[in-house]
Amino acid sequence: MHIWVDADACPKVIKEILFRAAERTGVSMTLVANQPLVTPRLKNVLSLRVAAGFDVADNEIVRRLVAGDLVITADIPLAAEVIIKGGYALNPRGELYTTENIRARLSMRDFMDSLRATGVETGGPASFSQADRQAFANQLDRFLSLHYRQAKG
To answer: How far apart are CA 98 and CA 137, in angstroms?
Structure first.
């Protein structure tokens, strides 16, 4: 099992939670971004810099992931591709995307895009809160307890 991080838009506090989890568990992790990243000096944490451009990092993550890998992303279309390929997707607010909820998320995203295209102000996401951080950390711990320990045997 490997953790892939869509790192360009990932909040710093979430990266720090991920780094602590990688250090504690030894799970392999790669942060993918189109800009230089600072990562801890851990042999199981890598960064991969890709060219700038629309969906370049997303496409690289999908190309490299294998079934059972976890992807950290707030990008709903990327999460849908991950699920189709047999991976897991967790957003930085702690929501685990599943085959049961991803279609609804995609539909809502497309609806909001349509509204914005007509000039409707839809606002942005709520500010990232301490509750979001805690929800992410809890969901990551649950996921690693179940999936990573199974993968290690």
So the answer is: 18
Secondary structure (3-state) at 112: helix
pTM: 0.86
Please give the Cα distance from 14 to 132 (Å, whole number).
10
Check: CB of residue 60 under 8 Å from CB of residue 75: no
DSSP annotation of 6 reads: E
Distance of CA 109 to the CA centre of its chain: 17
Do strands 28-33 and 88-90 pair parallel, antiparallel, or not at all (unpaired)? unpaired
Instruction: For tokens 């711990």, name the residue.
Output: 141
* Dihedrals phi, psi of 101, to nearest 5 degrees: -110, -10
User: Beta-strand (E) ranges in 2-152?
Assistant: 2-6, 28-33, 45-49, 70-72, 88-90, 96-97
64-116 confidence digits (pLDDT tens): 999 999 999 999 999 999 999 999 999 999 999 998 887 877 766 666 677 66
pLDDT tens-digit map of 27-58: 999 999 999 999 999 999 999 999 999 899 99
Eight-state DSSP code of residue 88: E
Q: Are 5 and 72 in contact (CB under 8 A)?
A: yes
